[in-house]
Design a protein that fits this description.
Blueprint lengths: L2 H5 L5 H30 L1 H15 L8 H14 L3 H37 L4 H30 L4 H24 L3 H25 L12 H35 L2 H25 L2 H11 L5 H35 L6 H16 L2 H9 L4 H25 L1 H27 L4 H27 L5 H25 L5 H8 L7
Helix pairs in contact: 2-3, 2-7, 2-10, 3-6, 3-9, 3-10, 4-5, 4-6, 4-9, 4-11, 5-6, 5-9, 6-8, 7-8, 9-10, 9-15, 10-12, 10-13, 11-14, 12-13, 12-14, 12-17, 12-18, 13-16, 14-16, 15-16, 17-18
Length: about 500
């Protein structure tokens, strides 16, 4: 089928964004519902061990040289050039890489289990081996699903992959809850999660093989294509490595040197902060393939306007949620879990604030990536990771978990601003474009979050019922005020503003 034929009936950027966001939203919703049940069934220490094995498995992403995350971008690029042969080659390379990673990780899990179990304590080498293999299985299934669906994503047809991933989130939720209800065994819980990932992979494979235009035109990759793919991907891999250091290393350090229970508390708070941060991911999740095609044909002088508009839209959705999460920190975990894990409120507030500036850089990342400059965000990410390690190593011995989080917050904020500077310099855009897009939303959200934080701080130590009611009331009031003010000032994305204008209380 020709490129022109494939474009007919293609979903819009908004539809693709919703499709890409749905599985993330479903996963966070499932996690929110299941966390109290899982925590009650496994205990905080066992939950922390599971968080540790998952964090270690995530480092496996470094083994594919960045090929997996790059596939959709190359599919979009070669689709714009009407080169289905090259699409088939990069897709074959992606699947092969995923399979090789799986084999390597299984061997590594077997040999690493004993030393890790001894270091963590409270679990046998056999149990740790089974947990590592389960976490490895989940990761490998996820990479294979991404490799299989990258063809549709690259063609900007993301609805079906999004639906499949959302179904997968539901399967994972059912298996997780079922395992905890049946037994308090951590190993059974891990195996149930791995089984859910396998079911999702099988459903995805059945779709790809069964639907018309679902399967890529696979071809044996040539050395020239592999060289281009690896050359681009390995620069992006620096970004992946740095992101893992920034997002996973704290958890590992806390688990090994402070204890699994502390890591479990960190993971619970981080889930809330990460869920708030993911709103920013939602807004840019479908941009790279779309911008890869659009910027190839658009005049360079139009880039700055597009960048400012998209940054303002993504910031208007991402930043207020993070600041609300930080403001609710004194009571949110108690309302959610029924008890406040030690240091949980501080972890939640620190990470939410640390992610604020980072959430405004997604459009810049997408621009650089789409234009073939992955080294720009990668450089910023590497600097962030180095700063994170240095600050954490310096502050942790002096202040414990407080030092870990302070170092992480400083590094993430500084690194995000560095990325903004590098992107603007490389693409020739004045920095004023960024401040105009971000400043009004940031000021508005901070002003509204301050009284929420004061109110929640006064309610710390109250009953769970009071915390639940206060959380709901503060969140609803904050959102309504923010939406009303932002709508009147024209700061919300156009699609949302059009729908708000139809309401009797806001219509013009």
């Amino acid at each position: 089928m020709t490129s022109d034929a494939r474009r007919r009936g293609r979903p819009s950027l908004a539809q693709n964004t919703i499709a890409q966001s749905a599985p993330l939203l479903a996963a966070y919703l499932a996690s929110f519902i299941s966390a109290p049940v899982v925590l009650g069934g496994l205990g905080l220490r066992a939950f922390g061990i599971w968080a540790l094995t998952g964090a270690i498995a995530q480092y496996a992403a470094l083994l594919d040289f960045g090929v997996g995350p790059s596939l959709a971008r190359f599919v979009a690029l070669y689709d714009a050039e009407s080169r289905p042969d090259l699409i088939g080659e990069v897709m074959s390379a992606g699947l092969t890489t995923s399979l090789l990673i799986g084999a390597a990780l299984c061997a590594l899990s077997v040999f690493a289990a004993g030393p890790l179990a001894h270091q963590v304590g409270g679990i046998s080498p056999t149990g740790m081996r089974e947990l590592l293999l389960a976490a490895t299985g989940m990761f490998v299934c996820s990479t294979l699903v991404n490799a299989l669906t990258a063809y549709r994503v690259g063609l900007r047809r993301m609805v079906a992959p999004g639906v499949l991933a959302t179904i997968g989130a539901g399967v994972n939720f059912s298996c997780s809850i079922g395992a905890v209800v049946l037994s308090s065994s951590l190993v059974l819980y891990g195996l149930a999660n791995a089984a859910a990932s396998l079911i999702t992979l099988l459903l995805t494979a059945a779709y790809v093989l069964g639907v018309r235009d679902g399967r890529a035109p696979y071809r044996r990759p040539t050395m020239a294509t592999v060289k281009d793919l690896i050359s681009f991907s390995i620069r992006n891999q620096m970004q992946t490595a740095a992101s893992l250091i920034n997002n996973q290393t704290d958890k590992i350090v806390i688990a090994i040197f402070i204890g699994p229970a502390a890591a479990g508390a960190y993971e619970l708070a981080n889930r809330v902060a990460a869920a708030a941060r993911s709103i920013g991911v939602y807004t840019v999740s479908a941009m790279v393939p779309t911008l890869t095609v659009q910027l190839r044909h658009a005049k360079r002088e139009t880039w700055a306007g597009t960048y400012e508009r998209l940054t303002a839209s993504s910031t208007a959705l991402a930043v207020p949620v993070l600041l609300l999460s930080a403001a609710l920190a004194p009571i949110l975990l108690g309302a959610w879990l029924g008890s406040d894990p030690r240091h949980g409120a501080f972890v939640l507030a620190a990470l939410s604030i640390a992610y604020v500036l980072n959430a405004t850089t997604g459009v810049g990342f997408s621009f650089a990536y789409a234009r073939g400059f992955p080294g720009i965000p990668a450089t910023a990410a590497v600097v962030t990771a180095v700063a994170n390690i240095v600050l954490t190593a310096t502050l942790a011995p002096l202040f414990g978990i407080w030092g870990v989080l302070t170092g992480t917050a400083i590094a993430l904020t500084a690194g995000a601003f560095l990325q903004v500077l590098l992107v603007h310099r490389r693409l020739g855009m004045p920095l004023s474009r960024y401040w105009r897009a971000v400043g009004p939303t940031l000021g508005r959200a901070v002003t509204l979050a301050a009284p929420v934080f004061i109110c929640c701080s006064l309610l710390d130590g109250t009953s769970r019922t009071v915390k639940i009611l206060a959380t709901c009331a503060c969140a609803v009031g904050y959102v309504l005020l923010y939406v009303a003010i932002s709508h009147r000032r024209g700061s919300l994305p156009a699609a949302i503003s059009r729908r708000l204008a139809m309401l009797p209380i806001t219509g013009s």
